[in-house]
Amino acid sequence: MRTEELRSEVEMARKEGCLFEVRRGKGRPWWWLYAVSMLLGLHLIWAYRVSHMPVAGEKGRWAWMAMFATELWFGFYWFITFSVRWNPIYRYTFKDRLSHRYEDKLPGVDVFICTADPIIEPPIIAINTVLSVLAYDYPPEKLSVYLSDDGGSIFTFYALLEASQFAKSWVPFCRKFNVQHMSPALFFSKSSISIHDSRFSEWTTMEKLYKDMEYRIDATMKQGYILKDIKAKHEGFSEWSFKTTSKDHQAIVKILIDGRDQIAQDIEGFALPTIVYMAREKHPNYHHNFKAGALNALLRVSEQISNGPIILTLDCDMCVNNVESIRDALCFFMDEERGHEYAFVQFPQSFRNIIKHDLYATSLNIIQMVNFPGHDGQGGPIYIGSCCFHRRACLNGRKYNELSKIEMKGKKPNILEASVSILEERTKNLATCSYEENTQWGKEMGLKYGCPVEDIITGLAIQCRGWKSAHFCPKREAFLGLAPTTLSQVLVQHKRWAEGHFQIFLSKYCPFLYGFRRIKLGLQMGYCIYSLWAVNCIPTLIYVVIPSICLLHEISLFPSVFSFWFIPFAFVIALSYVVSLWESLYFGETLKAWWNEQRMWLYKRTTSYLFAFVDTILKLIGMNDLAFAITPKVADEESSKRYENGIMEFGSTSPMFVILSAVAMLNLFCLVGGIKQVIIYGVGSLGSFFLQFLLCGSLVLINFPIFEASFFRNDKGCIPIKTTLLSVAVVIVAYFISIL
Ligand SMILES: O=c1ccn([C@@H]2O[C@H](COP(=O)(O)OP(=O)(O)O[C@H]3O[C@H](CO)[C@@H](O)[C@H](O)[C@H]3O)[C@@H](O)[C@H]2O)c(=O)[nH]1
Ligand SMILES: [Mn+2]
Q1: ipTM
Q2: Contacts of residue 422, Cβ cutoff 8 Å, sequence gap at least 6
Q3: Assigned architecture for domain 95-349+384-483
Q4: A Gene Ontology biological process annotation (predicted)?
């Protein structure tokens, strides 16, 4: 049994020598008490629904059935969530033991960074990520950085060239000053130095060096072309004249710093890691398969150049923020007893731009702090695309075999023999999409194609090949990224996620089918929390519309406060909110952040998930194409300011906002209507409508930002009058339908 397994794992770690240790979460009896009482409450609610069903012809029979179906679904979904959360495990590493034993035998690490669009992902962000990686506390000859640019932008290439120059000063500076915020932008925004400090002049010189570089990149982008004398500095610029009309797919590979090169040595004797730029052309005849395609191309290219047995994948905005995270990851891979079972080590994705009360619930705190250790307890966390260390062999498609421990050293990379230009020429062909024609890339090898959450499906496949994975959450955040900062960005991002997960559920990779007998049932259910996100749109819409409309029509859908049946409803509602609030507060969120999170759940469920649901169905019947809407990493100045001040951003006329606004208006309308009836019929009638009032009232309350944005704001982020009118029209139509 799992319990035994865990106990013996901890035992083993105690025996000294192990590089990591596993500890089980505390407080499990409480969890069981919670689960049993919740189940009891749910059953009573269902019993009430069955026993009090209106007879045929009676008012509200359909509404009743919809409520019953919804509550069944919520119960089922709660059960899935609980099954993931009941047995979390937490991991600890012993990096001193690692250094002690393996310092001279550390494996090569290849870092893959993806960027795709120089406008919504400005190159300065991507190169800050590159620079943060270069500042890792790791032997430079064993570290290589690859930047994939799906935008194929000459400006990104230029920025990387600048960065590889700047790195020669930045990396030694980081060592000398023991810099912890390894991305220069973050470092200079977070730390300051006193004029009396002996390091003052060095510090300010470095700051100026960075600001100048930033300025040059910015100016070049504004100008729209690269100056002649800059172009003369690197022959790489000449490649941007390639013709896109060619029959074959084309790619560019440029080695900007060659790790074995002596010139790469800076004044103080610091060698720099290898830095490689790769771009794949957009070609009408070939699908470039978005990020998965980019990562697969990098796998092939890097195999020829550095061939590190460990790979770290990062999004362009995800800076390294902890000099030790490579070593943490290695503690899992290199542990003598159990290391060979692990395919990947996932770190949490943390964000550097979350505001005080986390307006859009973008920190993903609860998912990462509660769910992920739970997945880990069931055999392995999921792979979420960024901040994850992989074994190259596992990404390439290798099956787990108890007997074969993977050699960490990897084959000798070719860079030792071939010249840079030969390597570039050879790897260029490997980077193209035409190279993948009639191969297993995207199917059995590398990241999987055809899904907007390529990471999830790839991780699932790795686990189904017998590998374990680990979730590791160090005290100091290992990585810091940029969370979306406007409501529509968040909703679109979640639409992509929900859609991807739901597609997996409906495909042959459905965790229950594909994972059957390959991974634990608990882990299969774990994947389903997300796979079924999209489906939640329907029950949620039922719950936010029907009881309120029924309130208006004096149809009671819940037991009266004076009835016995009121107890299970009150109990389940109170318990689930108390537990969720407790979780949030426990993980350091504020009360207001929790409230904001509840609102975001409502918004995601009624818009992102709905659109994801519909789009997935359309795609299933062949009416829609696969897309990957990239999340912008920047917003305009005004809306950024509103974000900083915690003001919700609407602004555009998105159909998503019409739905949000319509739900809010409908509930306001019903609440007013309900109150009117109480005034007419007296407070006595309140009893049997109490829960409906509570629900409708909470919906009005939580939607306050929408009313504010429709009626009391006139900045550019308010709700356009068109959207408000449309939503009112929707409410009127809904009202007339309901009286038919
Ligand atoms: O055609 C593309 C599209 C995207 N990207 C890159 O993929 C990364 C992730 O894209 P982003 O729009 O930032 O997605 P997020 O929703 O923020 O990312 C989460 O979700 C994705 C899956 O939906 C994962 O790939 C990411 O790692 C994970 O952080 C970025 O670096 C992009 O530059 C490409 O390289 N090529
Ligand atoms: Mn992102």
Answers
A1: 0.99
A2: none
A3: Alpha-Beta Complex (3.90)
A4: plant-type cell wall organization or biogenesis
